[in-house]
């Protein structure tokens, strides 16, 4: 296209030059022809002709010069005009070029931003922002991929779910930011101990997932589990607090436990749950029977939903004996569930399910009201300081209804705070220390006494004796049972009682079954005992008959 333009221009230039030459030739020839023939007609004198010819020539030169001047001038004007036009177009072109450079730069930047936000999106979608580890989604996709490969080459793999026991407590004590740092530290350490090919992911919260590809036997997994456990072993220092961290793990194996990623993950989670509910700080392999257990749990949960409205609950009472007074000074209210088909169900079997499902809130409120109704009924039979202890779980403190009932009943004189004690286990308290401390202070402000239950199992942190606002400490029955004269447990109990007394905390020993245990506890300065030695938990009527003075006006039950 450019070439044809150039040729066109060349042709135009030739044409123009030819035109000028032609015009000149024609005019000059015409001039010579006409002027000479005119001159011949005017004169024949040779001198005149010479003289006129000179002027004619000069005139010709003058005219042709003028003609040339106008022709060249008009052409030069034209050239100049196209020059200016060209310069203008060049400038425009330059500007457009500059603009294009800027646009290119902007486009480049936009592309870079787009690329980085795309990468960010991928990172957010597939990676955990706290630890930088692959997240649950990537874990799942990876597992599906590995299962597909293993389907062809007939290999086995294991999924391990790891959960830090009571991480919530660490969170409560040191705050989220420091707890997140700790999670980061854990993930780095975990990365250093896992073998090449093991896929590590943060599933969420304090839960990590591992895919161990190509396992031959359980020895391979055991080796891996031991290594993972080793990461957390020892003392962790954070914010002047010393933490002993333990972990629970659940394991499921492809193809033994499931053929697809979803079921494999679900089974690892079930196994982890099992490890947690059976005391934490352990690992547990998935077993098919766990599914049967889940069905049972579901049945219990469904039954619990109707138990309150069907009046299937009742309370039994176990006396609490004051050693120095040699008298029963109170009772612990223990919940019983008479299931219409299954018969009596132990609280050990249904309380954890009620806690997990949140049903413990209405159930716990019922326990509070019924124990309070009972003490009001016994008012005329017992001394003012006689109290009933009720068991509570942390879930009830996370909800306002429990405290509201106490406030409401106290304000209308239906509840005397001196007659109700609140028992909370250390394990439950540790699930949410902040909420527990707040709730316990509120309860104490209202005049109720607080008892730390089951002390001696779980963490038995002496720190909590100072942190939690408690009035009494209940030493767990497992401790009392292994207690013999001069045994290690006896010495621990002695020191514990002394320490509690320094902190103005009274001590109750539960699960006291023998005279020997009673004697040891009495010698160590224990304040109260509770257990089969005095009485098993019994119905309200039996309790009244056995432990409350009979009064003639009592109308019976
Ligand atoms: P706990 O609070 O530690 O209650 C003491 C348990 O030890 C009771 O079991 C009681 O029957 C048993 N026990 C008492 N004396 C002896 C003894 O001398 N030897 C032996 N071997 N055992 C003794 P129970 O009634 O089956 O209650 C089990 C657990 O269920 C309770 O442990 C408590 O944690 C929970 N629980 C019971 N009622 C309630 C309730 O109303 N609310 C809540 N949240 N938990 C409850
Ligand atoms: Ca208790
Ligand atoms: Ca207890």
What labels would you give this structure?
alpha/beta; 8-stranded mixed beta barrel; 5-stranded mixed beta sheet; disordered C terminus; binds ligand C2E; binds calcium ion
Helicity, as a percent range: 55-70%
Number of strands: 16
Structural class: alpha/beta
Strand order of the largest sheet: 8-9-11-12-13-14-15-16
General form: rod-shaped
- Average of pLDDT: 90
Low-confidence sequence ranges: 552-557
- Rg is 50 Å
Query: What share of the residues does DSSP label as strand, in percent?
Result: 15-25%
Brief account:
With 557 residues, this protein is α/β, with parallel strands linked by helices. It has helices spanning 2-42, 46-126, 136-153, 167-174, 176-193, 218-232, 261-277, 289-307, 347-357, 360-378, 394-397, 401-411, 426-431, 433-445, 462-467, 477-481, 488-502, 515-524, 540-547, and strands at residues 157-164, 199-204, 207-213, 235-238, 241-244, 247-254, 283-285, 313-322, 327-339, 343-345, 387-392, 420-425, 449-455, 472-475, 506-510, 528-530. The protein is built from 19 helices and 16 strands.
Describe what this molecule looks like in 3D.
The protein contains 19 helices and 16 strands. Mean pLDDT is 90; it is low at 552-557. The strands form 3 sheets. The protein has an 8-stranded mixed β-barrel with strand order 8-9-11-12-13-14-15-16, surrounded by 4 helices. Strands 2-3-1-6-7 form a 5-stranded mixed sheet, with helices on both faces. Helix 4 crosses helix 5 (176-193), helix 5 runs antiparallel to helix 6 and helix 10 packs parallel to helix 12 (401-411). It is rod-shaped and about 180 Å long. With 557 residues, the protein is of the alpha/beta class. Helices cover 58% and strands 17% of the residues. One calcium ion (CA) is lined by residues 332, 391, 423, 453. Residues 453-454, 474, 476, 510 line the site of one calcium ion (CA).
């Amino acid at each position: 296209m450019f070439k044809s333009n150039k040729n066109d221009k060349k042709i135009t230039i030739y044409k123009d030059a030819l035109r000028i030459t032609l015009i000149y030739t024609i005019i000059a020839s015409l001039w010579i022809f006409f002027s000479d023939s005119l001159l011949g007609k005017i004169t024949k004198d040779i001198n005149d002709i010479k003289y006129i010819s000179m002027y004619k020539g000069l005139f010709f030169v003058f005219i042709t010069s003028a003609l040339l001047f106008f022709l060249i001038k008009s052409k030069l004007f034209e050239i100049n005009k196209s020059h200016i036009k060209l310069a203008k177009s060049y400038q425009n072109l330059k500007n457009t070029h500059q603009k294009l450079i800027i646009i290119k730069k902007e486009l480049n930047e936009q592309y870079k931003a787009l690329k980085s936000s795309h990468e960010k999106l991928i990172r957010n979608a597939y990676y955990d922002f706290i630890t930088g580890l692959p997240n649950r989604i990537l874990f799942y996709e990876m597992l599906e991929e590995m299962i597909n490969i293993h389907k062809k080459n007939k290999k086995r793999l294991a999924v391990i779910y790891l959960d830090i026991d009571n991480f919530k407590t660490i969170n409560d004590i040191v705050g989220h930011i420091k707890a997140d740092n700790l999670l980061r530290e854990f993930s780095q350490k975990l990365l250093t101990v896992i073998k090449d090919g093991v896929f590590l992911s943060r599933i969420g919260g304090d839960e990590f997932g591992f895919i161990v590809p190509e396992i031959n036997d359980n020895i391979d997994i055991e080796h891996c589990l031991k290594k993972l456990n080793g990461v957390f072993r020892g003392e962790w220092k954070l914010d002047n607090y010393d933490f002993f961290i333990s972990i629970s793990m659940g394991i499921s194996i492809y193809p033994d436990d499931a053929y697809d990623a979803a079921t494999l993950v679900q089974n690892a989670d079930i196994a982890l749950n099992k490890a947690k509910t059976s005391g934490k700080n352990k690992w547990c392999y998935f077993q098919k029977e766990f599914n049967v257990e889940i069905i049972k749990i579901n049945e219990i949960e469904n039954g619990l939903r109707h138990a309150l409205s069907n009046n299937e609950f009742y309370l039994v009472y176990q006396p609490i004996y004051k050693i120095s007074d040699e008298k029963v000074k109170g009772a612990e209210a223990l919940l019983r569930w008479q299931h219409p088909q299954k018969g009596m169900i132990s609280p050990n079997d249904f309380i954890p399910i009620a806690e997990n499902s949140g049903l413990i809130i209405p159930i716990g409120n019922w326990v509070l009201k019924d124990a309070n109704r009972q003490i009001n009924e016994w008012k005329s039979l017992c001394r003012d300081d006689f109290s009933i202890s009720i068991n509570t779980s942390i879930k009830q403190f996370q909800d306002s209804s429990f405290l509201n009932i106490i406030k409401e009943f106290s304000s209308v004189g239906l509840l005397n705070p001196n007659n109700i004690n609140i028992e909370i286990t250390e394990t439950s308290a540790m699930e949410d220390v902040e909420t527990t401390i707040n709730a316990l202070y509120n309860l104490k402000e209202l005049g109720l006494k607080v008892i730390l239950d089951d002390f001696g199992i779980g963490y038995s942190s002496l720190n909590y004796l100072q942190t939690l606002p408690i009035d009494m400490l209940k030493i767990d029955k497992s401790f009392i049972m292994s207690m013999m004269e001069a045994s290690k447990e006896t010495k621990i109990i002695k020191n514990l009682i002394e320490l509690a007394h320094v902190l103005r905390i009274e001590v109750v020993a539960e699960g006291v079954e023998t005279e020997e245990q009673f004697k040891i506890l009495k010698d160590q300065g224990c304040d109260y005992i509770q257990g089969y030695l005095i009485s098993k938990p019994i119905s309200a009527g039996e309790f009244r008959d056995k432990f409350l003075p009979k009064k003639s006006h009592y109308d019976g039950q």
